[in-house]
Amino acid sequence: MSKKAVSTAGPTEEANVSCPAQNAQAPINALLSKEERIELHRKMVRIRRFEERSLRAYQAKKIGGFLHLYIGQEAVAVGCCSLMGKNDHVITAYRDHGHAIAVGMDTKALMAELYGKITGCSKGKGGSMHYFAPSLNYWGGHGIVGGQIPLGTGLAYAVKYKKLKGAAMAFMGDGAVNQGAVHEAYNLAALWNLPVIFVVENNGYSMGTSQARSSAGPGLAQRAEAYGMNWGTCFGHDIYEVRATMDKFLTLAREKNQPSVVEIDTYRYRGHSVADPDKTYRTREEIEEYRRTKDPIQLFQNALLAEGVLTEARIEQIDAEAKAEADLAADFAEASPFPTAEDIQKDVYWETDNPAQRASKGRLFFD
Amino acid sequence: MPVITYREAIRAALAEEIARDENVVLMGEEVAQFHGAYKVSEGLLEKFGPDRIVDTPISEAGFIGMGVGASMLGIRPVMELMFWSFYSVAFDQILNNAANVRYMSGGLINCPIVIRGPANGGTNVGATHSHTPENVLANHPGVKVIVPATAADAKGLLKSAIRDNDPCFFLENTILYGEKGEVSDDPELLIPLGVADVKRQGSDLTIVTYGRCVLHSLAAAAILEKEHDISVEVVDLRTIRPLDFDTVLASVKKTHRVLVVEEQKPFASVGSQLAYLIQREAFDELDGPIHRLATIDAPAIYSPPVEVEQLPNPQRVLKAALAALA
Lengths: 367, 326
Ligand SMILES: Cc1ncc(C[n+]2csc(CCOP(=O)(O)OP(=O)(O)O)c2C)c(N)n1
Ligand SMILES: [Mg+2]
Hints:
The structure holds 2 protein chains of 2 kinds. Chain A is α/β, with parallel strands linked by helices. Chain A has a single domain (19-357), classed as Rossmann fold (3-Layer(aba) Sandwich), CATH 3.40.50.970. In chain A, 43% of the residues lie in helices and 9% in strands. In chain A, strand 2, helix 8 (180-191) and strand 3 form a beta-alpha-beta unit. The relative contact order of chain A is 0.18. Chain B is α/β, with parallel strands linked by helices. Chain B has helices at residues 6-20, 44-48, 60-72, 91-104, 134-138, 151-163, 212-228, 245-255, 270-282, 304-310, 314-325; strands at residues 3-5, 24-28, 53-55, 76-80, 114-118, 144-146, 168-172, 180-182, 197-200, 205-209, 232-236, 239-241, 258-261, 291-293. In chain B, strands 3-2-4-5-7-6-12 form a 7-stranded mixed sheet, sandwiched between helices. In chain B, strands 9-11-10-13-14 form a 5-stranded mixed sheet, sandwiched between helices. Chain B has a two-stranded antiparallel sheet with strand order 1-8. The longest helix of chain B has 17 residues, at 212-228. Chain B is globular and about 60 Å long. Chains A and B meet through loops of A and helix 10 of B.
């Protein structure tokens, strides 16, 4: 079964040409300066080049475990995270590289984490699925499908409890919506008016399972109705539309403590993870069609060219810089040391990492 | 005898039992059209059709619980967890419902479910995906826990588990899926649950182990023999509960020294239980304290070369064996 048709206004043209003008004219986008627009573009390009570089490193056996690439979905993370204020927070699943770069994490530390090096953002302990940066309000990177959604609800609870004006964006995939914890979190958020937005990045598949084979009901976002929550959908290949849509729901969260479910249509070009041969559940033509007509970077690039914000020369320069940055990150990762066996038992307990302030007695580790 | 992989052995057990008993169904994420995340169920959908080989949404609590309920009415569901690590989201169904329903009904209800999937570290998938819950599971009376190390054991034990009338939890290993061994193609060749297997005879030291650590222990035993002239007996438990303590005891009486090797966090592990039983039943047979080699006590680290050090490996087994003999 192929990916369901995109439900909201998208480009009708044949190739990657343009997106509806009203998205660019939405107040949140109309306000953007030239440099801010270029920065949105640059972030998407940096994510793509980082991911392509990490794929090469994986193929060269520099990276172990899983590698879930975000290529094709860049406009979602960059669009959403570009709206973050100082009290807004983000949490996502294991396909977390895009969000990490979008919130501003250093690609050297991200690549080093993939290489399992001590200079990685989690000291080589978490790997690809477990990136974190609390100082940037980025709370991971979570490996268990749906497990991050109650946590995101908790971030919203904490923001509200502290009487701050902020919101949490809790990202999940189209497969994650069928985890029980997600539904419990929906109810809590609605019952207690928590400022959380449940963002469903609908890329059409959970591993090899299409939405039609995994989810009952008319739509994923619409499930919010059962809990009396706001919901919306959006065309996630157009970063202007992502920003315009999310801005509305973020405002409802920040100003009125109203939770929402927003389903953003998007598409992943690569297999579920690098290990997925990607042969059984979709056609090459389907992937090609998305690349050709809905590529988020290409669409935004065209918009910025038409606006006179970008030139071909600048586009090339940004791309070259992004490639150089990814190579530099790989060089940094390569040159960094691995953790040692002594590091295994660090970062387990606060108390053993802060022995001077230990209050509990007794043995914490066993052999 | 045909030589096949551990993966193929599991597939053969599934195919034979699905063909034999119309009440056996295989269910789980990606088991049908995608052929299983680890290709264990490759070809089964084509052979048995979508009523017997069923893809589920990512709803472990829902579908495992559904399997428990169906088993109460005589279905024999084999539920695949893509990783045993995901059992945590279905914990209530597995350890409240499946484990207790027979007892709480005063024996009126049976729960012949099999839950299977890989449970191991060593592939750098990090703390959330590397759990080895055999001790947690076996802590619950009412359940059976099986951890096969070889292709032949995997096949014979899985067939017994599917025919068993109690909930059976079958813990495989992604690293072993490609390991080959001789496996009978006799569809009636079952290995009973609760029978350990002495994988190597020896006289100086007993290593009690199971799962992938059997391979590490055999590798270490070969080095100990060649380089240290030490004769090691390797006892593979194969099932954790029921536990074949007689075979362990016989070996302890022969060697008088014991090392337990397990891919487990040490606290309240399978090895803890064994050490208790051995000192209780064979205190006077022991020439030294019981030693244990486990996973270094921390969540699973991602970093590939360091994870090798965190887990048992042949070098760590070798060192532990020498310490046990000192
Ligand atoms: C509880 C749980 N079950 C199963 C898995 C294995 N798994 C990892 S990702 C995935 C598919 C998730 O798909 P989706 O939510 O659509 O996100 P996407 O991968 O498309 O970003 C599955 C089944 C898991 N990590 N956690
Ligand atoms: Mg998906």
